[in-house]
Design a protein that fits this description.
By secondary structure, this protein is of the alpha/beta class. 32% of the residues are buried. The chain starts with a helix and ends in a 6-residue tail after the last helix. It is built from eleven helices and five strands, in the order αβαβααβαβαααβααα. α8 runs parallel beside α11.
């Protein structure tokens, strides 16, 4: 009980000390809804959101080496230290190098079942003119949740998973798409922000997926599946 009270006190004290908030928006993890709720709380000059060019690089709609992506992001999108809110498809390795308040800001992300995320990503890519169309969900870049959360853009395999788990343990809150309705009020209360009703900005359109494709997707995204399993086991709504 005392430990829980101490944790709550620390979070309140933390938010009061540092007003910087970072939302790590992993593609197709309810980020549009979260961004919509967050941006209502901040003047436009005090926030930065992802742009279409960043989406193209991170989503996998265009083929770029990650080293080139990093160089492009660092040069073209420097983060003003005065920004109270940074929200977008910015991977952790980029934020650690380019956000001077990263270590002290309140950081959180939203995770989604990896298979559902890939299928949703596939639907999105097929609808976007500015991104290269993918004829199959197998064309979606694998293990994107791990890639977004890793502290080194070149990490692969077990090292990639290890870095992603380390990042989760460094975050102040980890939410899940499946229970967003229940966890968002607690998150906003912790941040000292007035609660805004959770709205689902994007509606998923049912589509047939070849069962063999589902098996391949699961195999290709093994690291994300293991990451998600770890998160579900270690991060409960009451931890926010």
């Amino acid at each position: 009980m005392y430990k829980k009270l101490a944790c709550i006190f620390f979070l309140c004290f933390f938010v009061a000390l540092d007003s910087h908030i970072i939302f790590i928006h992993i593609p197709k993890c309810a980020g549009t809804s979260m961004n919509s709720m967050l941006r209502k709380q901040f003047p436009q000059k005090n926030l930065i959101l992802q742009e279409r060019y960043i989406e193209s690089l991170i989503y996998g709609g265009v083929e770029n080496e990650y080293s080139d992506v990093m160089d492009t992001l660092l040069k073209k999108y420097p983060i003003n230290p005065k920004y109270e809110l940074v929200s977008g498809h910015f991977p952790v390795w980029y934020l650690k190098r380019n956000h001077m308040h990263y270590s002290t800001a309140f950081k959180f992300t939203v995770l989604r079942d990896p298979i559902e995320r890939v299928l949703s990503n596939h639907r999105h890519l097929k609808q976007q003119v500015h991104l290269t169309r993918s004829s199959s969900p197998l064309g979606v870049k694998p293990n994107l949740m791990c890639k977004m959360l890793a502290s080194d853009y070149s990490a692969e395999g077990e090292d990639l998973l290890r870095q992603a788990i380390e990042t989760l343990n460094e975050l102040d809150a980890v939410l899940f798409v499946d229970n967003l309705q229940e966890s968002v009020p607690s998150l906003f209360k912790t941040l000292g922000l007035p609660f805004v009703k959770v709205e689902h900005a994007n509606k998923s359109i049912p589509m047939y997926i070849n069962p063999k494709h589902l098996e391949i997707i699961a195999k290709n995204n093994e690291l994300d599946i293991r990451l998600y399993k770890y998160a579900v086991e270690h991060f409960k709504p009451e931890r926010i």
